[in-house]
Design brief:
With 182 residues, this protein is of the alpha+beta class. It has a single domain, classed as 3-Layer(aba) Sandwich (Aminopeptidase), CATH 3.40.630. 33% of the residues lie in helices and 30% in strands. It has six helices and nine strands, in the order βαααββαβββαβαββ. The protein starts with a strand and ends with a strand. Bound molecules: coenzyme A. Coenzyme A (COA) binds at residues 22, 34-38, 111-113, 118-119, 122-123, 145, 149-152, 154-155, 158.
């Protein structure tokens, strides 16, 4: 198993396959509670455009995709209109007394570990690779998690993410979390 930046277009297609298996409409309510779920469905075109700005991070086990954690710089916000309210909220938030907008931050756009690979440290390895690849360019990594996704909440807290705020929209209640590398 190794974590790397995405390098080949076929890897983005594997990301979409793993994403589809874990979409909230695809997993049962019981599995969503126990194993987590993802909400946003990307298109290949969107992933390719994000990739052109900043490659995402994947974990590979030979030819298999064990997990992914997407990199979404602020410049890519227009690519996914459904996330625009989140970015608008970020524009109003502060971290350690300073507006978020004054930080060099990016958004971790979605994380998923394939079922057979959960509980094996891959989640942590994906974020280690984020830090290794992006800490020179960014001060903060932000993401948001559905508060009922307790598995993801717990894993993010373990890596070092801290809550910034909580809000609710039509789909869920969300906790915005920040990982401060400074
Ligand atoms: C969320 C996800 C990325 C985490 O990866 P993982 O390899 O399963 O995570 P880990 O096993 O390293 O950590 C899970 C943590 O949650 C805990 N946990 C496991 N099941 C849990 C549950 N049902 N409720 C609460 N916590 C739970 C584990 O004990 C561990 O915490 P600990 O280290 O403090 O003991 C992965 O489960 C996944 O891809 N789920 C489906 C998609 C998803 O939810 N993505 C995240 C969207 S925000």
């Amino acid at each position: 198993m190794r974590t790397t930046l995405v390098t080949a277009p076929a890897e983005l297609e594997q990301v979409l396959t793993l994403q589809r298996e874990n979409l909230r409409g695809h997993v049962s309510p019981e599995e969503a509670l126990e194993q987590g779920f993802v909400t946003v469905a990307h298109t290949l075109d969107t992933l390719e455009r994000m990739h052109a700005v900043a490659p995402s991070i994947i974990a590979r086990d030979g030819e298999r995709l064990a997990g992914y954690a997407l990199v979404m710089p602020v410049e890519t916000r227009a690519f996914i209109p459904i996330l625009e309210p989140m970015f608008q909220l970020f524009d109003t938030l502060s971290w350690k007394g300073k507006p978020l907008g004054d930080y060099r931050y990016y958004v971790m756009g979605q994380v998923c570990v394939a079922r057979d690979y959960r509980g094996q440290g891959i989640f942590d390895a994906l974020y280690r690779e984020h830090r290794a690849s992006y800490a020179d360019r960014y001060e903060l990594c932000l993401t948001e998690i559905a508060s009922r996704n307790t598995r993801s909440m717990r894993a993010h807290a373990r890596v070092g993410f801290q809550p910034v705020t909580t809000y609710r929209d039509d789909t869920d209640e969300w906790v915005v979390v920040a990982w401060d590398w400074s």
